[in-house]
Amino acid sequence: MNASNFVDGVDFSLYFILAISVFFLVGITSVMIYFLIRYRKKKNPVATNIEGNNTLEIIWTVIPTILVLLMFYYGWTGYKPMLNPPDDAMEVEAIGQMWKWSFKYPNGKMADTLVVPLNQPVKLNLSSRDVLHSLYIPAFRIKQDVVPGGSNFMWFIPQQTGKFDILCAEYCGQLHSYMLSAVKVVEKEDYEKWLKSSDVDKNEHPGLALMKKNACLSCHSLTGKRIVGPSFKGLFGSVERVLIINKEKDITVDRDYLRQSILKPNEAIVVGYPANVMTPYEGVLNSDEIDLIIDYIKTLK
Q1: Any idea which of 10-24, 159-173, 243-257 has the lowest mean pLDDT?
Q2: Contacts by 63-71, CB closer than 8 A, 24 or more apart
Q3: pTM (2 decimals)?
Q4: DSSP string spanning 85-151?
Q5: Assigned domain for 147 exists
Q6: Domain end point (choices 67, 83, 99)
Q7: pLDDT tens digits along 73-101
Q8: 37 lies in the same domain as 98
Q9: DSSP designation for 205
Q10: For residues 292 and 301, what is the distance between their CA atoms, to the nearest angstrom?
Q11: Which domain holds residue 98?
Q12: Quick one: how far is CA 31 from the chain centroid?
């Protein structure tokens, strides 16, 4: 059984084009080898002029044209259904950001993994918080660009239970290859239970939960390890050298500095780290949520 409704159409197009390509590769290579042997200098010391052949000219013009049109036809018939999601499709917001996928359901639930019910049409409304990404589900044979400042969509019908990889197929920065997630296809009853359940760990600091939700830990570690941005461990109260309007300055990391770094991260860049990488969280996080994040950072002594 196929993982999604698009597998047959996409695979047939691929195999059809591959078969034609292999046929011509073998055919043209064989003819080249034959000509090298048949018309080598030893047998043809004096070059001879070969007149044209109208029949051959017509054949090798008409046949490739027909084959190219057939490749276009099967490619189009495999792609066209992807543009028309059914009216009863379940809609989920798929949000890309460096370097994490997030999925928001109609009831407000957020998840790092896309969970969908078996045999239910699903439409993903795609958006990006920073740069260009591309959501790619190889097992479903679907891929679509996720464009900052724009909207896009993709849809599918999952036809097999299981867990399938989600990748980013557009280079989006230093940790592009770590931007991994999964589609988990479950029975409808299990999906309803999951949708109503809470994934919140009551023992987890709410600030840490917000960091995970907003991809903060993609660039900042909790252990002192350097990634894309400074580690959160021991950060609060430390003295950092930052670049402000092309001038270096020593600052003490306090609540005001952390709040500014979350809302307007490119106004003061820690020396030694790249600029214009972090997405401004103005309009994404409210004041209370920022306070919770800062409270958690303070605990990382």
Answers
A1: 243-257
A2: 67/20, 70/16, 71/13, 71/16, 71/17, 71/20
A3: 0.75
A4: --TTPEEEEEEEETTEEEEE-TTS-EESSEEEETT--EEEEEEESSS-EEEEEGGGTEEEEE-BTS-
A5: yes
A6: 83
A7: 999 988 999 999 999 999 999 999 888 89
A8: no
A9: -
A10: 16
A11: 90-196
A12: 43
